Amino acid sequence: MSDESTSKWKVITDLKTNVVKSIFRNPLPSSDRGRAATSFTNLFLHIQPVKVSKHSLKPTYTFGLGLICMFLFIILAVTGVLLMFYYVPSTTQAYDRMLDLRGAVAFGGFLRNMHRWAAHAMVAAVFLHMCRVFFTGAYKPPREFNWVVGVVLFLLTLFSSFTGYLLPWDQLAFWAITVGTSIAGYAPLVGKEMKFVLLGDSNVGQEALLRFYVLHIAVLPIVLSTFVAVHFWRIRKDGGLAKPEEADENAGFQTVTIPLYAQDGGVPMAAAATVAAPIELPRRTFTIQGLVRGPFVKVGKLKEDNVYSWPNLLEAELFVFVLTLVGVLLVSLFFNAPLEEPVNVMHPPNPAKAPWYFLGLQELVSYSAFWGGIGIPTIEVLMLFLLPYIDRTKVGVGRWFAKERLLPNTLFMLFAVINIILMVIGIFFRGANWEFVSPF
Ligand code: HEM
Fold first, then answer.
1. Residue located nearest, by CA, to atom 6 of ligand 1
2. Backbone phi, psi, residue 258, to 5°
3. Is the C or the N end of the chain the one with fewer CB within 10 Å?
4. Going by DSSP bridges, is the β-strand pair 306-308/51-53 parallel, antiparallel, or unpaired?
5. pTM of this prediction?
6. What does the pLDDT look like over 251-264, one tens digit per residue?
7. Nearest CA to 74 among 260, 328, 330, 250?
8. d(CA 213, CA 205)
9. Is 169 helix (H, G, I), strand (E, B) or coil?
């Protein structure tokens, strides 16, 4: 090679190296220090701890359910934005746009399938994740507030799915929302006003479609993303996922001192930050410095059952992501999202059913409008919010169905099973005029 072409080649490789270096501050890590530095200096990775306990990585502990919720939300955001390029929130155009998606837009039907099935899956995954957190006692101090944030996420997920239900503007959408919003109308004192604010009118029509659209594509995703960020931040601040030993060794909060050092010279960049909070038992203290510079500094009783997040946690997350995506893709390939006849306000289907996750409530409403529509759901939601402040014993944390938690686990199981049974009755066993029918 001539000198001239060698120097040209060098300019190109230097340029490439400089660009890559400006984005990724560290090469692919091959040492513990590198693994820590990689987690620390990358926006997406620094959300995670540098080290994570082996217990939290066990697939049978979380079943990856929290991550599945998160990945489904990402799939929904991506497919939702693509669908927005075609959708028009108008009662005269929405249904035709659905037909266009199915017949005229490349991959339009597939995209809609993905969005629809991911939405259903997210409702189910969030519920299952909540059950996992309960049955492992992971809502106990110091995680009470994160449980509350989780309950808000659960409600936001239901509401996001519910608002999306109306958008195709077919018979299924129209009557499901008509039934769903009339349940809200049963609330004492403010029921009618609440329904009016939601629909922008006394019935489901253009105003309701626009309101549901704005809530569905802007308000709820922004609020949900904010709460997810708080949720993840709290997981870090609460010391990662709940572990059995933690409950015994580390009641209450701990004091963590964080001296900040420049990477090269070891010169302090800022004063040490100390986060202090009440604590009942001997505390353990460690420094972030210990994680990034050489061996892991242990003070007090901290047990070394931790492994580096890079690559252990990252690989697990990637695996769950691929699994979730493949699951959604496969279901979308084989099953089409329903699209019924266009809206006909004169011909309600018999029975008109709410979305499946509200069918338990609809079943209850068939016995008592007030108790089914408002009384019982309000009590259930209040109980969920208050639960971690009522059940404060620190036994059986971080273990599935710990025998010390037999009573709370049995009560929660009862709550979950009753709700599921009511839903199954509503979905499969109710026919015309809400009469009992056999699906077999
Ligand atoms: C959009 C919905 C949600 C997302 C994206 C989400 C995400 C996550 C993730 C990724 C984790 C850590 C890994 C895991 O436990 O699988 C987690 C943990 C946790 N979540 Fe959620 N979550 C959601 C809803 C909920 C709900 C409905 C609750 C309860 C009502 C809840 C309560 C908790 C608690 C208390 C933890 C800490 C668990 C522990 O320390 O073991 N989350 N969440």
1. 66
2. -120, 90
3. C
4. antiparallel
5. 0.86
6. 444 444 444 444 44
7. 328
8. 12
9. coil
